[in-house]
């Protein structure tokens, strides 16, 4: 990654995690990178079933010295991927990691902060049961929502998909 991309993702990640923690209405722990294990910074919280949930913001693709034209695309993952998660960070009351659902959102950097409230709505809707009523996303997806319900575990914004297509 270029130094500019590194600075940008670090700044956006911190802003996103700070907004997320402030708006979730439950305690959220934000961990920092651990160079010895290679873990990404993440935000984690305990749900009503005492399961740990986590959210990671990381780089999907980014320009570098060899491919300066490579698109800069980020991913927000809820309960999926992005390294080793240790539920013991939350203490004895934690009943393990929530493995019942996950979601990945792939987007361009200028869209990420706009999606903070939407991601929170998605999490809260899932927490309320099978009926996942969420608001329209702040930027269009490549697929359509059905009656404000999202039926898949992965989404790309149209801009992110377009950036990848232009590159290839």
Write a brief caption for the model.
The protein has 168 residues and is an alpha+beta fold. It is 26% helix and 19% strand.
Core attributes:
about 170 residues
Explained architecture:
The mean pLDDT is 82. The longest helix is centred in the first third of the chain and has 21 residues, at 3-23. The chain starts with a helix and ends with a helix. It is built from three helices and six strands. It has a six-stranded mixed β-sheet. It is of the alpha+beta class and 168 residues long. The chain has helices at residues 3-23, 116-127, 158-167; strands at residues 29-31, 42-46, 52-61, 73-78, 103-107, 154-156. 26% of the residues lie in helices and 19% in strands.
Largest sheet features: 6 strands, mixed
The counted number of beta strands is 6
Task: Give the overall average pLDDT.
Answer: 82
SSE string: HEEEEEHEH
Helix content: 25-40%
How many helices? The count is: 3
Q: Indicate the low-confidence ranges by residue numbers.
A: none
Distance between the termini: 19 Å
- Secondary structure class reads alpha+beta
């Amino acid at each position: 990654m270029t130094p500019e991309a590194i600075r940008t993702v670090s700044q956006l990640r911190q802003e996103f995690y700070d907004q997320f923690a402030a708006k979730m209405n439950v305690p959220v722990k934000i961990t920092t990178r651990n160079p010895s294990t290679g873990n990404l910074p993440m935000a984690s919280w305990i749900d009503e079933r005492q399961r740990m949930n986590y959210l990671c913001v990381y780089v999907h693709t980014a320009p570098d010295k060899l491919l300066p034209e490579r698109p800069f695309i980020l991913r927000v993952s809820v309960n999926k991927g992005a390294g080793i998660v240790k539920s013991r960070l939350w203490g004895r009351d934690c009943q393990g990691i929530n493995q019942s659902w996950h979601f990945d959102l792939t987007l361009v950097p200028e869209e990420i902060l706009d999606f903070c409230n939407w991601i929170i709505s998605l999490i809260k809707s899932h927490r309320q049961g099978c009926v996942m009523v969420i608001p329209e996303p702040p930027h269009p997806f490549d697929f359509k929502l059905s009656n404000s319900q999202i039926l898949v575990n992965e989404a790309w914004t149209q801009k992110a998909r377009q950036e990848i297509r232009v590159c290839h």
